[in-house]
Specification:
It is built from 11 helices and 15 strands. By secondary structure, the protein is α/β, with parallel strands linked by helices. It folds into 2 domains: 70 residues, 2-Layer Sandwich (Alpha-Beta Plaits), CATH 3.30.70; 274 residues, Aldolase class I (TIM Barrel, Alpha-Beta Barrel). Strands 7, 8, 9, 10, 11, 12, 13, 14 and 15 form a 9-stranded parallel sheet that branches. Helix 3 packs parallel to helix 4 and helix 4 packs across helix 5. The two termini are 35 Å apart. 42% of the residues are buried. It binds phosphoenolpyruvate (PEP) and manganese (II) ion. Manganese (II) ion binds next to loops.
C-alpha cells in the first residue's frame, strides 16, 4: 500500500510525526519513505510493506498528511500500474522528457572508437535538433579477446564533445559499480557538459548487486534492457529492483530474445511487448532495433529489416529508440554489420516520423471508438 502525502508535506512538522508514530505502532508493517522531487513541488510517498491486506483505504486516508492511498498488487509495487493509480508515467532528466507519451531517438555509436567519429555523429544529431545519443565506453563482449571498449579513458573527451554539440543525454552501458563512479568523476572534471542514462545490458539484467547499486544512485536515470533468455516478468522484476532501492527513473528496453526461432535475425524481435510493458508498468519503453536484427538485410520492397522492426515498435507506441549508426560502419570496432550509415539518418528519421504519426492516429481512433460506444450505451 502506498500513502501519497499532501504536496510539500513538512517532514519536521507535528502532523508528519504523528503519522509516522501511528504507522510505526502497526504490527507487521514496515515503512519506507520516498520523495519525488519535481520542478514545482516535492511529493512524499510512504510505502507500507507487510501485512497490509486488512488495512482499510478510508482509515488510511484519514491519517494526517495523507492525500491519497493506492493499494498495490504484490508485483512491481513501485513501477507497476495499480488500480486507481494516477502516479506519473514520465520523468525529466537534463531537460529531456522520458514518458509513456513521447518518443526520444538515441542514434549513436555502439562503441566509442575515436574522437573524429564521435564528433561526426554528434554534429549530425545537433544539426537535426536531436539532444540524445548512444555511446558505448564499456563493452561486455562474448569473446574475451574482442575489443572491450575504451572505458574510463574516453569519458572526458566524449562528454566534452557532447557539451560542444548540445547533447543532453548519452545512453552508456555500465557493467560494474566502478563504471558509475568513473562516469561521475568524468562529468565532475568536465563540469557536467551532458547527462548520462546508465544502460544495464541484457547480460546484466539479473545482476542484482549491480541493480541495487544503481538503484541507490540519485543522479542518473537508467535504461534497463530486457534479459535475452528470461521471461518478461523476470525482467520487469529486475526493473523493480532499481525502484525498490529508490531509483524509479527507469526506461525499460526491448532488444529481442536469444533463440533460434528468430533466425535469421540476431534475436527474436519482441516489440509486440511494447504495449504490454506500458499496460503493466509506468515505465517508458525503449526498442533497440539494431541488436534485435543484427544485420543490414533488406526486403524486396527496398526497406531494411532494421527500419521495419523500428516501425513495428513505434507504431505500437515505443517511447525511445536506441539505434546503432556509424560514419564508417566497415571500420566500427563493434557491431559494424548492423550499423546504419550517416547518409541514412534523415531517411531513418522520416520513416520513424511516419510510424509515430500512424501510432498517434491509432490512439485518436481508439478514443473516438470508445466515445461512440459510451454514447451508444
Ligand atoms: C548495446 O546496446 O550496445 C548492447 C550490448 O545491447 P544488449 O545488452 O541489448 O546486447
Ligand atoms: Mn552492440
Amino acid at each position: 500500500m502506498i500513502l501519497i502525502l499532501q504536496a510539500d508535506t513538512d517532514k519536521n512538522g507535528g502532523d508528519f510525526r504523528q503519522l509516522m508514530d501511528h504507522l510505526s505502532n502497526m504490527k507487521n508493517i514496515k515503512t519506507r519513505i520516498h520523495d519525488e522531487v519535481g520542478a514545482q513541488q516535492t511529493l512524499t510517498e510512504v510505502y507500507l510493506v507487510g501485512d497490509t491486506a486488512t488495512l482499510q483505504i478510508e482509515d488510511m486516508e484519514n491519517l494526517p498528511c495523507v492525500e491519497r492511498v493506492v493499494r498495490v498488487s504484490e508485483e512491481y509495487r513501485v513501477l507497476g500500474r495499480h488500480q486507481d493509480d494516477n502516479r506519473p508515467t514520465h520523468f525529466e532528466y537534463n531537460g529531456v522528457r522520458f514518458g509513456q507519451d513521447n518518443l526520444n531517438i538515441f542514434a549513436g555509436l555502439c562503441a566509442v572508437d575515436n574522437p573524429q567519429h564521435v564528433e561526426m555523429m554528434m554534429q549530425a544529431l545537433q544539426e537535426r535538433g536531436l539532444p540524445c545519443t548512444r555511446m558505448g565506453a564499456y563493452k561486455p563482449r562474448t569473446n574475451p579477446y574482442s575489443f572491450q571498449g575504451h572505458g574510463k579513458s574516453c569519458l572526458t573527451w566524449v562528454f566534452e564533445l557532447a557539451g560542444k554539440f548540445d547533447i543532453k543525454v548519452i545512453a552508456m552501458e555500465v557493467t560494474h559499480d566502478s563504471h558509475v563512479r568513473e562516469i561521475h568523476e568524468a562529468l565532475e572534471v568536465t563540469g557536467h557538459p551532458t547527462g548520462v542514462l546508465l544502460q544495464v545490458g541484457t547480460r546484466n539484467t539479473q545482476n542484482f548487486e549491480l541493480l541495487k547499486v544503481i538503484g541507490r544512485e540519485p543522479d542518473f536515470p537508467v535504461l534497463l534492457k530486457r534479459g535475452f533468455g528470461i521471461t518478461l516478468e523476470e525482467s520487469l522484476n529486475a526493473a523493480e529492483y532499481l525502484a525498490s532501492e529508490g531509483n524509479r527513473r527507469v526506461v525499460f528496453g526491448l532488444r529481442g530474445m536469444k533463440t533460434n526461432m528468430g533466425d535469421p535475425h540476431r534475436n527474436f524481435v519482441d516489440f509486440s511487448h511494447v504495449p504490454v510493458v506500458k499496460r503493466l508498468t509506468r515505465m517508458p519503453v525503449c526498442i533497440d532495433p539494431s541488436h534485435s536484427v543484427g544485420s543490414r538485410d533488406e526486403t524486396p520492397c527496398g526497406i531494411l529489416d532494421v527500419f521495419h522492426v523500428t516501425a513495428q515498435g513505434v507504431i505500437a507506441g515505443a517511447n525511445m529508440i536506441l539505434v546503432d549508426f556509424h560514419p564508417v560502419p566497415g571500420k566500427a570496432l563493434v557491431d559494424g554489420p548492423q550499423a546504419l550509415r550517416m547518409d541514412e539518418l534523415d531517411y531513418f528519421l522520416e520513416d520513424v516520423r511516419i510510424a509515430r504519426e500512424a501510432y498517434e492516429q491509432r490512439v485518436a481512433l481508439a478514443a473516438a471508438h470508445r466515445k461512440q460506444q459510451a454514447s451508444a450505451a
